[in-house]
TrEMBL record:
Domain Thiamine pyrophosphate enzyme TPP-binding: 450-604
UniProtKB keywords: Hydrolase, Thiamine pyrophosphate
Family the entry assigns: Belongs to the TPP enzyme family.
The name this protein goes by in its record: 3D-(3,5/4)-trihydroxycyclohexane-1,2-dione acylhydrolase (Decyclizing)
Native organism taxonomy: Bacteria, Pseudomonadati, Pseudomonadota, Betaproteobacteria, Burkholderiales
BP-aspect Gene Ontology terms: inositol catabolic process; isoleucine biosynthetic process; L-valine biosynthetic process
Length: 656
């Protein structure tokens, strides 16, 4: 399928002939037809700032079963030219692809997914949780049991012995920002606008679940015709409140050593990266980036101190620990960012966030607002105020030193007989672009999730512009990588999407390689094979545990032992191109072939599961058993208790 078919022309009509002609001011449609037609009618202003509009929904991923094929399946077929449908191979994976599509569009375009009831529906729950944690929009449309209860229980129905109104889809309630079960076709008239508001509101944004009982999907209703008129969506992001701005200014203007922590909101807010850069430059404030915020400021900007937190740079973490005021811009301040609340305990925190729940974390003084609007308002009021010259000078010096460290770690000459590790792979991948590092930083999109690779990428990947770094680390979900890469490619077909994935995550979820080939959405997948779950193996030992059940060599095995897996051959069996390389030099050459290829290309390299980049980092709280027969565990517990005591001491000092 060509890219034009995948990314249908913005001028395409958002409506199609109904099953029955308009009669007065109503249109008779099934609930499924009404749902699909409504989604197809939603438009969004073009990203290039022109007068054009584009479909808000880029399409629907679907795996059909008895609970959705006859109802929503027929409706999707009818409107397939206005709202394309893509077949996937795993329900969780297709939802990851849809979520990644929205992330790559900075939440301004999105997708829907539909499944049957039973395992098809519950397979979406993990993806819903991922979208919830990352504040990303996705519309989930699982089939549901019959409202009539005539066939009771229907195939795949979960029965609750105490509540006849519960189905498996109730599992979506804690992982949805809005949940509704459509028990009558007319209910769509209220449910769909509510769903759309959640999906397009910066403060509410996250997964929406509309459970669709099978019989209701097929029921007809006379809908108002104007319900299906094309609409250009307004994205809701609040302006700052004057009192909160003044309180923030009071704290900021007495600071001498302020720092900005840029989170995902610094990317999702339209115009926020430019506002962030202007604000940092005008006031001499260094910037540290979370996993979600990386790329908001170019990697080589003098005030970009790099990644912050547990997987952070030595520069950003030193500055954060010395800062007297931290502007947390669009970040949910999870423990990897705050070093389990030990990294900036000495600082006043100002939480700039569209979502009050997130803005109040770390006992912050909140400015509840869109990131760009808040930065613009603060900048106007600050006028020519600046951080101390000594602080800005120290920040730029540390940032430069960190960039030198990154260059060294990613360009270390190979040693004979020594397996490469993640930093070596990252360097080779970025050098392999035709224009070298500069082109890779500007044009490539790196996709990853979970394990050691996100830590190494956070420190070492050089992102030259917003969107160049696409790592899911809010939910840290193994299996997101390849499916997420597909979603990013559908969103940005002109960019090279490079998925970096460990062998453990690859084994968990790889079927969307076949989908990428089927759709002509080419990915480059780099598999780092360390023969097990290397990240958790190291954490296990750091907590005093013995190597156990993580690496193949430390697992219970049958008489044939652990399998020797040929990932390249497996990828070829799914329709991709694939090869195994022996070293970093071969990897760089293979990457050039992959970039020139016409389809998804998988490159596999054996790596060292024990080595990581020692530079940078911060303490992360992982509870160690108080009682153990193992001396190593007791020693780890003693070290853990000391760190907890240090955090309590820091809290005591901060609270006066």
């Amino acid at each position: 399928m060509n890219q034009r078919a995948l990314h249908h022309d913005a001028a395409t009509s958002a409506t199609a002939p109904s099953a029955q002609a308009d009669q007065g001011t109503t249109i008779r449609l099934t609930a499924a037809q009404a749902l699909v037609r409504y989604l197809a009618a939603q438009r969004v202003a073009a990203e290039d700032g022109s007068a054009r509009t584009e479909p808000l929904f880029g399409g629907v991923f679907a795996i059909f079963g008895h609970g959705n094929v006859a109802g929503i399946g027929e409706a999707l077929y009818q409107y397939r030219h206005e709202l394309p449908t893509y077949r996937a191979h795993n329900e969780q994976a297709m939802a990851h692809s849809a979520i990644a599509y929205a992330k790559a569009h900075f939440r301004r375009r999105m997708m829907a997914v539909t499944t049957s009831i039973g395992p098809g529906a519950t397979n979406l729950v993990t993806a819903a949780a991922l979208a919830h944690v990352n504040r990303l929009p996705v519309l989930l449309l699982p089939g549901d049991v019959f409202v009539s209860r005539a066939p009771d229980p229907v195939l795949q129905q979960i029965e609750d012995f105490h509540d006849g109104g519960i189905s498996a889809n109730d599992a979506f309630k804690p992982v949805s920002r809005y949940f509704d079960r459509i028990v009558h076709p007319a209910q769509l008239l209220t449910a769909l606008p509510r769903a759309l508001r959640v999906l397009t509101d910066a403060a509410l944004c996250g997964p929406v679940t509309l459970a669709l009982p099978q019989d209701v999907q097929a029921m007809a209703y006379n809908y108002p015709a104007d319900f299906f008129e094309p609409r250009t969506v307004t994205f809701h992001a609040g302006a700052p409140v004057e009192e909160e701005l003044e309180a923030a200014l009071t704290r900021l203007t007495i600071a001498r050593q302020p720092m900005i922590v840029a989170g995902g909101g610094a990317l999702y807010s339209r115009g926020a990266p430019d506002a962030l850069r202007a604000f940092a430059e005008r006031h001499g404030i260094p910037v540290g980036e979370t996993q979600a915020g990386k790329g908001a400021l170019p990697w080589d900007h003098p005030l970009n101190a790099g990644a912050i937190g547990v997987t952070g740079s030595s520069a950003a973490n030193a500055l954060a620990h010395e800062a007297d005021c931290v502007l947390a811009v669009g970040t949910r301040l999870q423990d990897f960012t705050t070093g389990s609340n030990t990294l900036f305990t000495q600082a006043d925190v100002i939480g700039i966030n569209a979502n009050a729940f997130d803005g109040l974390k770390a006992r912050a003084h909140i400015v509840q607002a869109d990131a760009r609007r808040a930065l613009d308002a603060l900048g106007t009021r600050l006028a020519d105020w600046k951080a101390s010259a000594e602080w800005t000078s120290r920040a730029t010096s540390l940032a430069n030193a960190w960039r030198d460290t990154v260059a060294t770690r990613t360009n270390t000459p190979a040693q004979a007989g020594v397996l490469p590790y993640d930093a070596d792979v990252i360097g080779a991948v970025q050098r392999s672009a035709e224009g070298g590092l500069a082109q890779s930083a500007a044009d490539d999109i790196v996709v990853c999730a979970a394990g050691t690779l996100p830590a190494e990428l956070h420190k070492l990947w050089r992102a030259g512009r917003p969107g160049a770094y696409h790592v899911e680390y809010g939910y840290s979900c193994m299996g997101y990588e390849i499916a997420g890469g597909l979603g990013a490619k559908l969103a940005r077909p002109e960019r090279e999407v490079i998925v970096t994935v460990g062998d453990g995550s690859y084994l968990m979820m790889n079927s969307e390689i076949a989908t990428s080939v089927m759709l002509g959405a080419k990915l480059i997948v780099v598999v780092l094979d360390n023969r097990g779950y290397g990240c958790i193996n190291r954490l296990q030992q750091a907590c005093g545990g013995a190597p156990f059940n993580n690496m193949f060599d430390d697992c219970t095995q049958g008489p044939l032992g652990a399998p020797a897996i040929d990932f390249a051959a497996h990828a070829r069996s799914l329709g991709a191109l694939g090869e195994h390389v022996a070293n970093v030099a071969e990897l760089e050459a293979a990457m050039k072939r992959a970039r020139a290829a016409d389809r998804t290309y998988v490159v596999v390299i054996d790596t060292d599961g024990a080595r990581t980049t020692d530079d940078g980092g911060w303490w992360w709280e992982v509870a160690v058993p108080e009682v153990s027969t193992r001396e190593a565990v007791r020693a780890a517990r003693e070290a853990y208790d000391k760190e907890v005591a240090r955090r309590i001491e820091g809290d005591t000092k901060r609270n006066g």
